[in-house]
Design a protein that fits this description.
heterodimer; A: 182 residues; alpha/beta; Beta Polymerase, domain 2; five-stranded mixed beta sheet; 6 helices; B: 175 residues; Rossmann fold; four-stranded parallel beta sheet; two-stranded antiparallel ribbon; 8 helices; 13% strand; globular; binds iron/sulfur cluster
């Protein structure tokens, strides 16, 4: 009994309090998974909220750990939750000041793969967004240099999309091994 | 000449007469020298390279077999050790490095990935580097132990001592 009470009495994490106060309309969901706070944001407000998370003096999520994406096209439960948005762009942030992490997810629909680039907030986002573009085909608006980073420049398709065949579309055979700039 | 005394294997190769005179052929002397001072060019792209480093470190000590002079310039090496996964984007780099090595040159394909793609039968991975460069010795394993790499080096040495051509020039000799 006592234990249950203690759990209930835990105060809401500061970040959730502040987000509810200042950006309630941007929040699609909030959750805590294995000790990490996960918030899902509306795409339209995502940039503004990320900027808020970074610049707010109390939160100060100054370190962008990772940018990646998930293709949920074969995860019916996930799809239903967020209006059948196929992709989920994921930002992992860390605050040195509060020594805590937050995972920010933004649903992206297949018919509009554009999302604002956060390179203006964290310069380290540059290559991370290039990788996400390369692997998933997400277009980061305002990115200074949105080229492929892992696959060869003339590669077609985005191999981490779930409908991309594991063994590829014959790239291993058709790849031009002589014309590459080495 | 102390040749026969310092290298017992070569003792069978040379005709020995009384006193200090031995007879042999130029080729055998040259191959004896080549075999005992292989200069490897490491091409480590994945986890197998960790085992390759262990092979070179003091515990396994590849210098016992005269192959510790690792060169990161292909121009100065005659043994290419491919250890790790090679993607389609990396293959032209590997080919260029192989081409830049002076003849005669030997190639060891270390591990399942370099030899056949390993578990990575995927859109971007070369299913065996021998499709593009000639391989003399394959090492199975994921990863192979340092002893396996040492064994492969010894096999290359045997191949050199026997006077066999590297895989890379065999096709030239046929025509
Ligand atoms: S064979 Fe195994 S250890 Fe070697 S590169 Fe491949 S996965 Fe890594």
């Amino acid at each position: 009994m006592n234990e249950e009470k203690e759990v209930e009495e835990q105060p809401k994490p500061l970040i959730l309090q502040k987000l509810e106060e200042h950006h309630a309309d941007a929040l699609l969901s909030q959750d805590e998974i294995r000790g990490t706070i996960v918030v899902v944001l509306r795409k339209e407000q995502a940039y503004a909220v990320l900027e808020y998370l970074k610049t707010d003096p109390e939160l100060a999520y100054t370190f962008l750990v990772d940018v990646t994406a998930v293709d949920n096209s074969q995860m019916e439960s996930e799809l239903m939750q967020f209006d059948y948005a196929r992709f989920m762009v994921v930002y992992q942030l860390y605050s040195y000041q509060g020594q805590c992490r937050v995972r920010v997810k933004v649903p992206v629909h297949e018919n509009d793969l554009n999302i604002p680039s956060v390179t203006g907030l964290w310069r380290g986002a540059n290559w991370l967004e290039r990788e996400t573009y390369d692997m998933f085909g997400i277009n980061f608006d305002g990115h200074p240099d949105l080229r492929r980073i892992l696959m060869p420049d003339d590669f077609e398709g985005h191999p981490l999309q779930k409908d991309y065949p594991l063994r590829g579309r014959g790239e291993r055979e058709s790849f031009n091994f002589d014309k590459q700039n080495v | 000449m102390g040749l026969a005394k310092t290298d017992t294997q070569s003792a069978q190769d040379v005709g020995q007469t009384d006193g200090n005179i031995i007879t042999t052929t130029i080729d055998r002397v040259i191959n004896w020298g080549r075999k005992n001072s292989l200069w490897p060019m490491p091409f480590g792209t994945a986890c197998c390279a960790i085992e390759m480093m262990a092979t070179l470190a003091s515990k396994f000590d590849l210098s016992r077999f005269g192959s510790e002079a690792i060169r990161f310039s292909p121009r100065q090496s005659d043994l290419l050790i491919v250890s790790g996964r090679i993607s389609i984007k990396m293959m032209p780099v590997l080919k260029r490095i192989y081409d830049q090595m002076p003849d005669p040159k030997w190639v060891i394909s270390m591990g399942a990935c370099a030899s056949c793609g390993g578990v990575f039968d995927t859109y971007t991975l070369i299913q065996g580097v021998d499709q593009f460069i000639p391989v003399d010795v394959y090492i199975p394993g994921c990863p192979p132990r340092p002893e396996d790499l040492i064994d492969a080096v010894l096999q290359v040495q045997q191949k050199i001592a026997s006077g066999a051509s590297p895989k890379g020039v065999e096709h030239l000799l046929e025509t």
